[in-house]
Amino acid sequence: MAAESTSNGERLKQGAPGGGGFFQTAIGRFSARNWALIFLFIMIVIFSLGSSGFFDIVNFQNIIHLSTGAFLLAAAELLVVITGGIDLSIGYVYGLSSVLGAKVMQILYAGGAGGAGSMPVWQVIALGCLAALSVSILPGLANGVLVTRFRVPPFIATMGMWGICNGITLFLADGFMPVMGAPSEINAIGNSYFLYIDPSKSISFFAKPSYITQANIRSVLRLVPNSLFLSLAVLLVLGFVLGRTRFGKHTYAIGGSMDAAIRSGINVNRHLVMIYVIASFVSGVAGLFNLFQTGIGNYTPSGANYELMAVAAVVIGGASLTGGKGRILGTAVGVLVLAVLENGLQIIGVSAFYRYIGVGVLLTIAVIIDRAFPDLF
Amino acid sequence: MAHLLEAKNITKRFGGLTAVDNVSFHVDEGEVVALVGDNGAGKSTLIKIISGVHKPDEGEIFLNGQEIHIDSPIDAISHGIETIYQDLALAENMDVPSNIFLGRERTKKILGFVNVVDYEHMSSESRKVLDRLDIRIPSLKSNIRNLSGGQRQAVAISRSIYWNAKVLIMDEPTAALGISEQKKVLELVSSLRKQGIAIIIISHQMYDVFSVADRIIVMRRGIKAGERLVKDTSTEEIVSLIVGAESVEKRSQ
User: Fold this and answer.
1) ipTM of the predicted structure?
2) Which of A8, A246, A266 sits opposite B146 (nearest CB)?
3) How far is it, in rounded angstroms, from Cα A173 to Cα A298?
4) Mean pLDDT, range A349-373, rounded to an integer
5) What is the pTM of this model?
6) Are residues A5 and B147, on separate chains, in Cβ contact within 8 Å?
7) Distance of alpha carbon B147 from alpha carbon B161, whole angstroms
8) Does residue A13 fall inside a structural domain?
9) Contacts with B93 from chain A: Cβ below 8 Å
10) A151: Cβ–Cβ under 8 A, 6 or more apart, which residues?
């Protein structure tokens, strides 16, 4: 049956309005597939030439460190988007986890500090984490049950959780107040680097040399923030699950054809519930790590649009909101594109408003490329 | 000798409507039976009873002489009764092996404890089953979306065959295809018959029916209006059975 096969070349010709000959060449296909990566490199070159502060290992690590939440949220969003859904609640699950973790640590730490039988600090931290992580599963469970059992469209189901999580967070945070009072040891975990090199004297791992104070910390070369380990771990695990396991195959199958998935015996409802739970849990991990980075429980400000930025990163990274398509690696590139755009514009002194314009333009390009080349990823 | 699949006195009612009324039929190994009839004649309902979508109100189903109970599509599949519906139920965003093994992926262990999908095994098994059916698909890695209608049909058939279908039910297999693709699907049906698979085809196309079927069962308003061996009948006779003999007689007067 080879004769009737529609070759990729023909498909591209039909599908790419004005694509011309270029996009049928190997280089053309490569650049269409990796446009976000190419754009990322071009941005790095432009920002490096445009300012002396951008091309710097400290700045690059800063970008990575500050993008931890974005990496995790985008990875969470990708799982849901591949199944053909969308999760609008992850941004507020993020805030809920951060604030709840901080609140639990605050109460335990204040109650036990100095007093007889006081709770060890590690126990305070562990209980705070446990509370934050276990609660962050619940919005996902609710989303999954609403989507599967009650046939609520994902947009609406997760929008409900968006509101509920926001409300609970603000209740816990006594209105718009960051939650202070967690043990300061958490900062040491969240903000440390793997390697500290004092060029003249010493090398140490995971903690700065004791003779260095916060004031002269910049004289030490710090390499590989702990946050990078977390981001890499989450991205690698989810990438592995999506790419290599049955769970991943089923995720793509559900997004590609719900009907085919059901008829091939996949327990689609159970699978979708698990997807929403994992997405919610990963968002909770991200929020908890935000607490470790900042030392305070931060509610998600209204207008932060974390969930929409996650959707943007996922789409720039080659996923399609119609489902069935998208990879972790692409999503990571999407996050970096947005992060470098923000950081670079700040450093060269362009108004932050342009960032929103940039995101809008990039999203449009992403969708046009997705439509024009349905088989690239 | 017992028939491979035999349905006896099947009746199915939907409220006041009797969709299938006391119909019996059978199909043997290596035999192609065509099920024809006008829209609403009860063909699809009968097929859905065999494939486990509907439960019959009355009647029995036998496989190799043994009575079987088909309560769900999974039951039917576990008895080796596979159904290929018109929409094929393929995941268009995935490649050929992933579709043939959809929901039943082969895995292997890595690092001693992690189960990963064994793509190489699935790929070589897919190649084997496609070769066995003489289906040519240039690259197994192409997504279903990039295949022609006939190739998709072939992938859906291969999936059923790979999972040891003994009875293959095909609902309008050529309906959405171009002329040359139709021919290839019919060739594929013939080659399946040679391999001993029992095939039930629903079709509106008299040409298809007469080119591949051994036997034709005509349904009309829920009853079996007639059953003919292809070699003993003609298009005219089948059409007259489909529309109802009276109207044909009237026209000829």
Assistant:
1) 0.81
2) A8
3) 8
4) 86
5) 0.87
6) yes
7) 19
8) no
9) 252, 255-257, 323-325
10) none
Residue A257 C-alpha from the chain's centroid: 26
List the domains of chain B with CATH numbers. Answer: 5-243 (3.40.50.300)
State the alpha helices, DSSP H only, in A295-327.
Answer: 306-316
H/E stretch holding B44 reads: helix B43-50
Higher pLDDT, A206 or A230: A230
CATH of the domain at A97: 1.10.3470
Is B74 close to A325, i.e. CB distance below 8 A? no
Residue A20 lies in a domain: no
Ordered DSSP codes for A242-262:
HHHSHHHHHHHHHHH-HHHHH
Give the C-alpha separation, A227 to A230, whole Å: 5
- Domain around A292: 33-372
Q: Do A264 and B117 touch (CB under 8 A)?
A: no
Cα(A279)–Cα(A141) distance, rounded to whole angstroms?
10
Task: Tell me whether B50 touches chain A (CB under 8 Å).
Answer: no
- Tell me the pLDDT tens digit for each residue of A288-345: 999 999 999 999 988 889 999 999 999 999 999 999 999 999 999 999 999 999 999 9
B 105-124: CB under 8 A from A: 105, 107, 114-117
How far A176 CA sits from the closest chain B CA (Å)? Answer: 45
CB contact under 8 A, A245 and B178: no
Query: Residue with structure tokens 């108004």?
Result: A351
Chain A CB contacts of B149 below 8 Å:
4
Please check whether residue B140 touches A, CB under 8 A: no
Cα A53 from Cα A62, distance rounded (Å):
12
